[in-house]
Amino acid sequence: MAEDLGSRTAEVLTTWELLARPPRTVCVTGEPGAGKSTVLAGVADLAVAADWQVVRLRGRPTEQGVPFAGIVDLLTARGLDVPAPLRARADELVATLAEPVDGGAAGALGLRLAVLGWLVDLGAARPLLVLVDDQQWLDESSWSVLSFAANRVADTPVACLASTRSATGAPGLEDAPTVALRPLDLDRAGALLDGLGIPLEAAVRTAVIERAAGNPLALCEFARVATPTTSAGGETPSVPPKVEAAFAAELPGLPSRTRSALLLAAAGGNDVQVLGQALPTGSVPAALAPAESVGLVTVVEGRVRFRHPLARSTVYDQASTAERVAAHHQLAAVYVDDEPRRTWHRAAASSRPDEELAAELATAASAAHARGAYAEAGRAMVRAAELSPRRSDRDSRMLRALELMTHTGHIARLQALSERIRDESSDPAIRAVAGHRMAYAMAQSMRQAAALDALESSLEELISVDVDAGWASLTTLASLSYQTGRGADRVRAWYDRYVRETRPTGGAFDEVTRAAQAWIEVALAPLSRPPQLVARVRDTRPLDLELGPEFVVPHEVLLGVTAWVLDEPEVASRRLEKAVAMMRRSIGAGQLIQTLMALGQVQFDRGAFADAADTARSMIDIAEADGLGYYRLVGRELLVRVAAVTGEPSAARAQAEAVLRALDIGECAALEANLRVTLARAAFASGDIQESYRHARSLFDRDGTPMHPHVCYRALGDLAAVAARVGEREAVRGVVERAHAHLDGTGNARYTVILQRALALLAEGDEAEAYFELATSNPDAARWPFELAHAQLGYGVWLRRRRRTTQARAHLATAHETFTRLGARAWADAAETELRAAGVAQPGPEPAWDQLTAQERQIVRLAAEGLTNREIGRRLFLSPRTVSTHLYRAFPKLGVASRAQLRDVLDQPDPGPMT
Questions:
Q1: CA distance 431 to 460
Q2: What is the dihedral of CA 228, 229, 230, 233, to 10 degrees?
Q3: Are the C-beta atoms of residues 343 and 365 closer than 8 Å to each other?
């Protein structure tokens, strides 16, 4: 565009400064014509001057339906200093993009890690800046890969800069800083006009500035075409009402063949060679020359580039329907060797049902899906449905499109398509499945309460047309009820009705249904521990593997999640880990991430904090790879929960607050409650006991009603502990008494530890000892080491203050050992302080191996076996750069300086299990 860089100099410098520090990813936002391209060009100039490499990508509306078009442009970009090995890797990746992805959940993630690794390695010699202009028009499969990489370049020599029209920033970069381009003020607008060199009379100049409202493109285009007109009242300025009108004003003066060439370019034929084949007569240079002379287009590297994207859309919109159809027919005839583009142009030219074309689009959709281009596959299948002459084909293809779009993360689009299917189809089964998908979309957008309503409509239809699908929907309904902490009565009514009105269908479905029933029952009463359910999750044998993962996996997942709620951590771990291993090979990421969510909870409960953090990172990676926004927040919450206990508490508080702000308060009660527990623990670890009490107290209403009927009771001991510290025992006594009525007699060892610890901390005088004894003497309590260590610490403090130091030392030493082993630093320090007060010398330094996280131990062991960073990354689903970072952190902990010394470390006595 013609805008002078001076009008956006401040924004250029701000953006460049942001790119120089973590997260090294920035999004420039602004309305059309605000100057986004100008800012990107200015930053690129600064990068080149600083000896950076720069790769420029641009989203094109005409290529939105071409899977991975942007990634191919990135990997084949000209002007980059790409060493031969990296060029070979790029060629391999380009070839991979044309092939079906790995059928397992690792396929999409593996591609993203491979692109990230290539970018990081490319930037190793000279820093690399990746620019994406007009992100809103980049094909979605490419953007899903690029946004994933952009979120992980903070500690690398790569920086990413994207521009988009969305005021909220580019999707997937919600955590990145944004530079919003505001309208130019009068002084900057005037300076821009002066720089154009276009003489304007005073009245015209004033009218241009007023009409442009600070938009740089509007200023340039209005100044170009504005003229004074004569009226009865004298001369008045004539300024177009919109920027598009300014572009349109130039079209009538162009020759017919020029307008035809421009329309072909705007419709997707912007390659000069394509134009040469599509134009009926004359050469391309001659046809484009008049448009080039007025600056409407330029030809760069064999492509026609419009002065601004609005110019392209204006050319296309100004054409008649017949002219647009003819242009697409011409382009379809040219793209004989490019089946995807040929099919899309035929579809754009079609105005009536056509089964042959619909079938081609359905085939193209399947091919795109096989390559992991889910958004493009979904759009192709929707168009196939629209062109289907038969209603049955239309319904089935629409449903297939809905299934494909589930993987895109575009929740609003998914919900709109679900509603469209339900409105247009008369088939109860089709309507029911669409309703289930709509509920899934709502749940992903954290509209959990609305999802409950949507699922109920599906349950009514499925009970008579597809019982197995009905039980699946009912399972989801129970999960939503658990997450929201509401709707249990509605779930119970549907559950009773399904049990009463349905009969077994036979075979493996019945086994999965029985597992689903176990989950529904425990979700309805998460504080209970019915013996028959405990026996079911312990004793039910896994299904025969020959039945296939579509049966074995949900069976293990449902029983594993049920075991978690029943506080059977060993059973839950065994079943969920088995399911995860199978899913990584053969099941989609959406189902895998739900299982990882449950596994992460179990790992945290068992005190395997490093493993829980690794699971959280996997969740975040998969969620970003597949656009699963809700599960990304769940993964972030789990990661922050671990950090609050084992990491830097002040950073954990800031991160937890950021996740909390991203929630719709009241929609995700379980997630919100976990975040408030995390904030309480992080504040405690920071020494801010009053703030810790505030967060812990917010888990319960004044009368003791919990925010969530399961999560909140698990934090009861924490609440009592901080209440005692700040003198608020009486304020929480009613909460604990109400909890006592709910928890006492459940036979749950974990709740016994939590409840008795809380009662002891609120007790007066010597009566506390009986509660502490109950909390610390249960033989099953060791299954929850974090809770037990808290009870032992509290008991030790109580004993020491009564000068019973010998007994106090035993409890304090055990608590200190447990907190140290778990990596719970703040609590280990507290136990150590109490031990000193009890006359025990400070323990020596922890063994070197114990200082490593679980993932660092895995990586060290594999590196000691001789695997390269890339081989380790493939095995553990990590980028080579991440592997290198872990080794960099592990070496000083182990006292080694190279990989060659790692074998000597491992040859020492067994370092023990990775927990």
A1: 11
A2: -80
A3: no
β-pairing, 297-300 with 303-306? antiparallel
Q: Report the alpha-carbon distance of residue 344 to residue 687 in Å, rounded.
A: 62
Q: Per residue in 563-595, pLDDT tens?
A: 999 999 999 999 999 999 888 766 555 578 889
Q: What is the CA radius of gyration of the chain?
A: 32
CA distance 763 to 774: 14
- The CA-CA-CA angle for residues 619, 620, 623, to 5°, reads 80
372 token code pair: 């992991």
CA dist 641 and 635 (Å) reads 10
Terminal alpha carbon distance of the chain: 58
- d(C-alpha 886, C-alpha 860), whole Å: 9
- Tokens for 304, please give them: 């026609």
Identify the DSSP state of 57.
Answer: E
Measured between alpha carbons, how far is 68 from 84 in angstroms, rounded to an integer?
A: 23
Question: Is the Cα dihedral 310, 315, 320, 326 positive or negative?
Answer: negative
For residues 655 and 848, give the distance between their C-alpha atoms in angstroms, rounded to a whole number.
29
The CA distance from 25 to 729, in Å, is 48
Residue type, 198: I
Q: Which residues of 554-576 are buried (b: 16+ CB within 10 A; e: fewer)?
A: bbbbbbbbbbbbbbbbebbbbbb
DSSP 184: P
pLDDT for 300 beyond 90: no
- Count H helices, E strands: the chain? 45, 9
Q: Does pLDDT of 713 surpass 90?
A: yes
